[in-house]
Design brief:
The chain has 156 residues and is mostly helical. It contains eight helices and three strands; from the N terminus they run H-H-H-H-H-H-H-E-E-E-H. The chain is 53% helix and 5% strand. Helix 6 packs across helix 7.
């Protein structure tokens, strides 16, 4: 069995008040379960930045491949500087949970998370049960609810 590694790292200063307050605000805004989800987003952005830094000295084709991949995910990047300026908020805005609320399919982040975990959300016809699923731009219009009639009857 392959050993699983953490997909995030804890903050170096665990009791930094400014960071704790900022994370609480982000947690409320995006309806996150815990701060580990914020740390995972930071880790993914850090990986993207490191990949961009390694491509600075490479040829333009490799850089363009990275930019195309990031644009498919939904990040507006045209240069290495744009990639280096990405932050965790941009990553959290691409989560399925956030996109469902932005499209006004559900009113709150908590209800979006509940519907996703209860397997009521379809992306391109397939059930996605992870609120942290990063929705590509082309799939954004294909997000819908499963059994829409049953869900509407329970609301009334």
């Amino acid at each position: 069995m392959k050993r699983k590694h953490k997909k995030y790292s804890r903050p170096k200063r665990p009791f930094n008040k400014a960071r704790i307050l900022e994370e609480e605000q982000i947690k409320k805004e995006f309806g996150l379960k815990n701060k580990q989800e914020i740390w995972r987003a930071e880790s993914r952005i850090k990986e993207i930045r490191e990949r961009a830094k390694s491509l600075i000295s490479k040829d333009a084709k490799q850089q363009q491949d990275l930019f195309v991949r990031l644009r498919k995910v939904g990040f507006n990047v045209n240069s290495v500087a744009d990639v280096l300026s990405l932050d965790k908020i941009a990553y959290l805005k691409r989560r399925l949970q956030t996109i469902i609320v932005q499209k006004k399919i559900v009113p709150t982040m908590k209800s979006a998370r509940q519907l996703i975990t209860h397997k009521k959300v379809l992306v391109n016809g397939s059930v996605i049960d992870s609120p942290s699923y990063i929705v590509p731009v082309e799939m954004e219009n294909k997000v819908s609810l499963k059994n829409k009639q049953k869900i509407e009857n329970t609301k009334q």
